[in-house]
Amino acid sequence: MSNSFYIHFIRIKFSPTHKPCCLLQLTPFSSATTATQKPISKIANQNSFAVDYLINTLGFSPERAFSASKYLKFKSREKPDSVIAFLKKHGFTKQQIERLVKYYPHIILRNPQKAMLPKIEFFQSLGISKTEITQIFTTAPEISGRSLERQIIPCFGYIKSLFDANGTSLSYLKFAPEALCCNLQSRILPNVNVLKESGVPYSKIVYLLQTHPRTVMIDAKGFRKLVEKVKEMGFNPLASTFEMGFNPLASTFVIAVHVLRVMNKSNWEKKVAAYKKWGISDNEIITAFAKHPHFITSSTDKIMAVMDFFVNKIGMDPSVVVKAPALVSYSLDKRIKPRYSVYKILAEKGLIKKGSCLVYLFKCGEKFFLERFVKSYEEKAPRLLELYQKELAISEKASMK
């Protein structure tokens, strides 16, 4: 396998056609002034009523209000007051209303009976709760300006068909509201088809939509190249086993596609360099990435801290970490250190063999850890639970500073 795979990936990731849907380009209003922008003072003077309204009614900061006023021209409270009253009536909190106006300012001047009510009623007809509906709108504010008949209903119908094919509850739609704002024919359909062609089952496609919907919403050409890149990193569709590389039947395949979408070249190279400082090779890094894609998403500081603890504190060989890459994703202070304190007591008392089941001790769920490594030794190590809880309290206190 070529170690230069990432160079090819970068050409894909930063191609001119690799752009997310317009919804994903929404960013909070900035108070910065460019050469083509009018100074804030002039904007405020031209639309001081809107600025005052945003500050006094919605709690905007002066800078954010000045910036938003470029998009909101009104000199009466009647229209925005009616919109806010409508939103409050339908369960939106003050913070949610602020977010809607912040990311989709035009909503405050639109007729809510036409722009919002039909969409709210549509979601209600599906059995979606009021709380979930407000979550949908605040997660994807642009949905307020999308056509119900031409955009939302067709996208919903297709996504529902995927969920139904997988036996997934419709309530999970609240995890992927952005997809309802994306072009069905030019993005979602072709991207889902690429995954199907690659052998990815419905369950994993739905999983990607639930957890990382924006990845499915990038342009079709860029998405196909990302999927092909994941395949090139070791996946052989004709092989019966996947000792190295990505199995399209596993969640790691679609997670890897997502990670390659969000990871830029500079960050990737920094993470690789951090692991190499511990003697881990390129191929080992790729193998670990295939097993656990988030192995490469931890910050360089965390990578160095966790590896230092495993190698220098515990005496673990770096190759062990590569074989269990999820270890790097765990919290050093809230999981690894407290559990290691339990392990040390058990090993010192001869209750477990030194070096045995150490990786499993870190990886197992909290409930099982307590049953297997703490409560089962209550008689021979009566203060073990107290020690563990004390270590957790210390880490929690430290994290709050």
From TrEMBL:
GO terms for molecular function: nucleic acid binding. Keywords: Transcription, Transcription regulation, Transcription termination, Transit peptide. SMART domains: Mterf (SM00733). One of its GO terms (biological process) is DNA-templated transcription termination. It holds the Pfam family mTERF. Belongs to the mTERF family. This is Mitochondrial transcription termination factor, mTERF. It comes from Handroanthus impetiginosus.
